[in-house]
Amino acid sequence: MDMSKVIEQMVESKDVKRIRELFNQNYPIDIALGLEEVTDEVLKNFMYTISNTRLASILEVSDPELQIRMLEKLPFRRVGLLFQQMSNDDVVDILGNLPIGIRKKYLNMMKGSSQDEIQTMLKYPQDSAGGIMTTEFISVKEHLTVEETLTKLREISPNTEVIHTIFVTTFQNQLIGWIDIRDLFTNELDVSLHDLMHTNIISVVPEEDQEEVARLSSKYDLSVVPVVSTKGVLIGIITIDDIVHVLQEEHHEDMLLISGVEGTERIGGPFIESIKKRTPWLLINLITAFMASAVVGMFQSTIEQVVVLAVAMPIITGMGGNSASQTLALAIQEIALGQLSLEKDKKYVWNEIVLGCMNGLITGVVAALALYIPYQNFYLSIIVVLAMAMNLMVGAIFGFFVPLVLKAMKLDPAISSTIFVTTATDVLGFFFFLGIAQVFLPLLI
């Protein structure tokens, strides 16, 4: 079913009943995806036929571009009502994508503690723990009993995102422990939370990078991560849905950065912006291509005397790049999981070198046999095996160290690592192959 077509037909027929039934048969995210494809006029008419509660459920799961389109077509007063239906962290995500002037107008519409909390959260970078946390959580004091805690949960749980994990604090709101809601139902009503709580707390400060939050969640199998101030005061939590979103976002960003494309760019995005984001890395790639070409030029006379060398050259460099990409992908993944660092894990480079050498010998022998059949040149085959083994070793070394060095320089390990690594395998691959060929030149002619 094409959701956009369904929405267009419902709006054109002005069948309000069918539009409302749409929500009973579909999830808000599916409707949001359909709305991305409709015209502004259809979008506007659709929004005016549904309640604030249902519109808020769509707004909070929509793509940032659709969110902006929706807000532009709604009066400020209704936007304020929609924000009241949403959790503070979702409101912060939306406001963070708006121009400062528009953002201030929406903030001025809000009142009380909600406005203060949202303003505080907006101060943190969007990719930090403070930027993705929610301030709607359950915390109780350590002196309460199980019975008193259950009574309090009934009162405040409708206004919180997570009720399965309850955080225990002091009278100064300092985080000292946590309780699983199941613990409340499996203990006597007069048991104190102080005696019941778990004290093995994994928490983060609001300035912590979201990628580190995701790593901690994965390592310790956490469905919620508390955010505390430098004094240990509980100020928010990061829920599993936001953690999953971070993992998806970081994976998507890394895949793009490896190829020299910014994580914020999309197919069909602004033309000029795409040029600005892609061209610098392509120019760097062009420079590295000239470097490889310069190496080939150094051995021009050798190639002229043995033209068949030109047939094998792309095989050597291509295989070196592929080998390097394998090591690079594994290294970036291990770094993202916090399991690989330049200081502690240099020993693993020897494993990659040996692996690269073995793979080079295996693939080199296969390539040598394939080239021997048409050209009947034994020494050409020997050169291919040697150059392949050397270049795959180089690929393994650079694939291992480039992301680690970038990490040590406080840069994202995925930042165009492929460009640097393939430059090394191209330049050194040509050098090894043509250099060895020049040594064997009398035997090749």
UniProtKB/TrEMBL annotation:
InterPro entries in the record: CBS_dom, CBS_dom_sf, Mg_transptr_MgtE_intracell_dom, MgtE_N_sf, MgtE_transporter, SLC41_membr_dom, SLC41_membr_dom_sf
In this chain the CBS domain maps to 133-196, 197-255
Q: What is its main location?
A: membrane
Report the transmembrane regions from the record. 281-300, 353-373, 379-406, 418-441
**A single Gene Ontology CC term:** plasma membrane
State the similarity comment.
Belongs to the SLC41A transporter family.
Q: What does this protein do?
A: Acts as a magnesium transporter.
Record text on subunit structure and interactions: Homodimer.
Which protein is depicted?
A: Magnesium transporter MgtE
Species name for this entry?
Granulicatella elegans ATCC 700633
